[in-house]
Amino acid sequence: MAESAYDVVVIGSGPGGYVAAIRSAQLGMKTAVVEKGDIGGRCLNVACIPAKAVLRVADILSEVREAGDFGITVGEPTVDFSAVSARREKVVGTLTGGVSGLMKKNEIDVIEGTGAVTKDGNVVVDGNEITVNKGVILATGSVKKPIPGTQFGGRVIGTEEAWALDELPKTMVVVGAGASGSEIASAYARLGVEVQLFEGLERVLPSEDADISKIAERGFKKQGIKVRTKTFVENVETTDDKVTFTFGGEPGEAEWLVIAAGRGPDVEGLGLDDAGVKLLENGLIEVDGTQKTNLDKVYAIGDLVPGPALAHKASDEGVIAVEAIAGNKTHAIVHVDIPRATFCTPNVASFGLTEAQAKEAGHDVVVGKVPYGAVGAGTVYGDRTGLVKIIGDKEYGEILGGHVVGAKATELIQELVNAKALEGGYPEVARMVHGHPTMSEAVMEAARAADGWLIHG
């Protein structure tokens, strides 16, 4: 049962909201979370976690098919998609159950309903007002957006629905080759679906470094994905069993059309206008370095505010907001240094500036590039096509950006993120002893390449 007053109320229980609530409770503040859906928010229930559960199945399937390269003879594997779906649900249930357990462990009240903020910094849940003594944190995440000239419905779906299909289709079209679209295309293509991937810009993963995008696209095409860049999907029509559309004047059709071309802040029902919360021109909530809005007790995090729409970014912002509410010394999040991870095959991960961005910013740019095949582990584990690329500033040896494509890229990037966070540069990474034979040696060698003394290459 909800009480009449709390120190902190968090609206939304995704990776930003529930982490904020736990940190609040740790700091001794009486805390509640308001959630209109399932605990864990979209990330745990319909987005990040179910996506990775299905992608993991595709990864294993690929490994089985490549077993012959390692001297293991197996028959052609088959996919029981109902079992895949059951495992996805089990994974989601395990993790959301874990979050519910953390709420109980930390004595956080979970209030079911739609929460809205008031101008004096209280919260109204389905008509019942709750007094908030110290701070409200808005953490409701984002919602899918259609491409111009289309609307969701029938067989035109968003990314959440794409990961929750009941049956494995024969054909699928994915519109948008950013992180979400690339993951969907890569997963379903390896599961045996005929996939077309459309991107309006000139390359897949357009926000990544150009060298990384090129290698990723080669990997997509090897999986059988029909990649069409600089191409827009138009005239979308849905029927009971298919979607028709045009692209570049040509007709097309598929069983499902997935729109993965952007999302918007989920502010419906939050009462922002009535409360007087200031928005930016793009509809996001304006916040300062502590995540505070223009209202004294109201904070906002995650996809509601500027910066990359990433779960781990939301979590860190939740901690920042709560510590500010508690009166603790905190820090402003640095968007450019947040790692970005895309779990398609090949994995793609990055942080900081691309080579083009660094040059445009006027840095004295130095680049260190090493393919996975240059180190022993790349050959041992069967991935010689990956690449580690470090962007640095020559004057001080500063790491401006890190970019990795290939197996375990989403894990390897963290070393460069950590090195920069600890004020290390690429010369320091170049002289750190790395275990052999490991993929991480490619990170070391890329740092050596940037420093001018590449050994293996």
Automatic annotation (TrEMBL):
Q: What else is known?
A: The active site is a redox-active disulfide bond.
Q: What name goes with this protein?
A: Dihydrolipoyl dehydrogenase
NAD recorded as keyword: yes
Entry EC number(s): 1.8.1.4
Residue span(s) of domain FAD/NAD(P)-binding: 6-318
Listed disulfide bonds for this chain?
Answer: C43-C48
What is the taxonomic lineage of the source species? Bacteria, Bacillati, Actinomycetota, Thermoleophilia, Solirubrobacterales
Which cofactor names does the annotation list?
FAD
PANTHER family cross-referenced by the UniProt entry: DIHYDROLIPOYL DEHYDROGENASE, DISULFIDE OXIDOREDUCTASE
Which InterPro entries does the entry link to? Class-I_Pyr_Nuc-Dis_Oxidored, FAD/NAD-bd_sf, FAD/NAD-binding_dom, FAD/NAD-linked_Rdtase_dimer_sf, Lipoamide_DH, Pyr_nuc-diS_OxRdtase, Pyr_nucl-diS_OxRdtase_dimer
A Gene Ontology molecular function term of the record:
dihydrolipoyl dehydrogenase (NADH) activity
Record keywords, A-Z: FAD, Flavoprotein, NAD, Nucleotide-binding, Oxidoreductase, Redox-active center
Q: Which residues form a coiled coil?
A: none
Can you quote the record's cofactor note? Binds 1 FAD per subunit.
Active site at: H436 (proton acceptor)
Please name the gene that encodes this protein. lpdC
Q: Which reaction does it catalyse?
A: N(6)-[(R)-dihydrolipoyl]-L-lysyl-[protein] + NAD(+) = N(6)-[(R)-lipoyl]-L-lysyl-[protein] + NADH + H(+)
- Locate the residues binding FAD: K52, G115, T140, G141, S142, D303
Where found?
A: Cytoplasm
One Pfam family hit: Pyr_redox_dim
**Homology family:** Belongs to the class-I pyridine nucleotide-disulfide oxidoreductase family.
Q: Which organism does this sequence originate in?
A: Paraconexibacter sp. AEG42_29
